[in-house]
Amino acid sequence: MKIIAAVDIMDGSVVRLVKGDPANKINYGSNAIETAQKWEAAGADLLHLVDLDAALETGKDNLQLITEIIKAVQIPVQVAGGIRTVEAVEKMLGTTKAAKVVLGTLAYENPDSITQLTRKRLEKIVVSLDQLKGTVMIKGWKQSSGMELADAINEFLSLGVHEFLLTSVERDGTLEGPDLGTLSHACTFNGAKIMASGGITSLLDILRLRVVGCSSAILGRAIYDGKLSIPRAKALA
Fold first, then answer.
1. Is 130 a catalytic residue?
2. From the candidates 8, 51, 172, 205, which is the catalytic residue?
3. 116-166 residue pLDDT tens
4. Which of 53, 130, 172, 205 is labelled catalytic?
5. Is 134 left (phi over 0), alpha (psi -120 to 50) or beta?
6. Is 8 a catalytic residue?
7. What backbone torsions phi and psi does residue 137 show, to the nearest 5 degrees?
């Protein structure tokens, strides 16, 4: 199981939102490049960069900063947040040099966009499963996609996607532990690789995620607040 460090960016700063709520924001500094390099030095297998401005449609984006971060680190970087056209996907994978792109709204509103990608590109696509009470949310977690979690996994597996980022909205940024029941169920789908996100706080959480079969764990607030270290998490992963 891989250990991934999250770097969520809003207006150029590194932040964490509790349950995705911009009104409940914790600021962790204004130097996102230094933060990314810190988690790389700590041993993260991959960085998960989220452009919250793009995701929440604030009228801004952090594309230039994300490009600079990718250039500043040696480990792979996956990018998420507001990537809502096939052209944007191609730009992230091509010009920006992201290792992976996480799709939410685009994949659910226009599933045909998945089939427009070449097989080589498709291998770098992760579909987000941002679930709230079993329903997948889109548009920065503000709107229902109309799809249940299981239906979404089956749908995108049939389109050739095999990697999913599962976040339980009510756990994200809360330090309350991961939603093991939902994650365990998702890991039973044949061919699905599940990245776990939301609420991961302790070494015991890491062990439990490994046991249920998650392919990776995305660490956010726990590493920023010093409740969990990347080296110790990797030792259990």
1. yes
2. 8
3. 988 889 999 999 999 999 999 998 888 999 999 999 999 999 999 999 999
4. 130
5. left
6. yes
7. -100, 150
